[in-house]
Structures are given as C-alpha cells and as structure tokens.
Amino acid sequence: RNLPAEPELPAGTLEALRAEAAVCTRCPLHANATQTVFGEGPRDAAVMFVGEQPGDQEDIAGRPFVGPAGRLFDQVIAEAGIDRSTLYVTNAVKHFKYEPRGKRRIHQKPNMGEVQHCRWWLDLELTLVNPKLIVAMGATALAALTDVKGRLQDVRGKAMATEGGRTLFVTVHPSYLLRIPDERLKAEEMARFREDMKRIQGLM
Ligand code: URA
C-alpha cells in the first residue's frame, strides 16, 4: 500500500522512450538478447547515424557501436573531424540477433519483419531528436529509413532530401569493411568510407 511511487518520466521525452524500449517485446528478438540497446547522444543532435543492430559487445554493454565496428567508426569519424559526442547514434534494430555456436554468438542479419517492428522506436527517435541530417550505414538502415527499393550502391555517397526537410546520406556499414578479405579491395573501400565521412562533416 505504501510502496514508493516509481519516478515518472515526462511523457514524450527521449528518456521515457528509452525506458519503454527497455521492456520491448514487440518482436521475438528480445528473448535471447541481454538488453535493449537504445540510441544515445544529445536529444537535440543535428546529426543521427543509424546502423543495423547491436553486436555481441553492444548487447553486453547496452550501448551502440562500442565493439569492433564501433572502434572503426570512432576512428574514421575522428579523422574526418566529427566529434561523436555531438551525434545521436542508433540502430535500425535494438536487440542483438545471433546464433549460438559453442561459446560464441554469431551475428545474424535481422529480417524485414524485425526491421519493420523496430521502426516503431526509430521513428520515435527521429521525431524526438529531429536531426537535420540522417546517415544510414548499410542496407538495413536504408531499408528502415526509407521505402527506397534498390541497391545501396545506387544511392551511396549522395545527399538526398527527405520529406521532413531533412537530408539523408547513405554509406556502407563499418562491419562490411571489417569483413572484406581482399586487402586491396579493403583499402579502396576504406578510402571511400573516409571520403563519405568527410562529405558528411561538410554537411553538418
Ligand atoms: N553494428 C551495428 O550496426 N550497430 C552496432 O551498434 C554495432 C555493430
């Protein structure tokens, strides 16, 4: 009867949204993940970066882009003169999807149903943060952010106007770069990614 009241978070804030997302069961992915990995960054960030889904390390830390892809991301944006603390960084899907293999958890690509379910959160993050520039990293982020069908390479590296008066910039996902086995191709793709980040810095 005399239980202390839960502190009420003001409705319609990013903090309230994060608290709601922490108990999300909209799709089955929550069942095997450690926790929801919600976006992070200033509530009034001018730029939002969107990845695919948390990986193994993000799942444990509860923060986006802190594993190998995150370290590459940090390094390349820093070289381009972008300060991560000014960015809102999030993912299309907020739970880690994986297949257990021995002691390892192998990342599995989210399917379109999972991406559509999780759009609920991404759309609300977009509404609340209201960035002027959105950066989609990879095809999953692109699919979550637009209805554009087609190949990532057709829209990659272009700044496109979106309905809400925002700009959408599409680039590859840093995990893609980490997986390229051929050293020469990898160097070329890294150079293109660095160029993209410099272009983004110019749009900020
Ligand atoms: N890959 C992503 O898409 N997001 C993360 O947070 C980490 C790796």
UniProtKB/TrEMBL annotation:
<comment type="similarity">
    <text>Belongs to the uracil-DNA glycosylase (UDG) superfamily. Type 4 (UDGa) family.</text>
</comment>
<feature type="domain" description="Uracil-DNA glycosylase-like">
    <location>
        <begin position="38"/>
        <end position="198"/>
    </location>
</feature>
<protein>
    <recommendedName>
        <fullName>Type-4 uracil-DNA glycosylase</fullName>
    </recommendedName>
</protein>
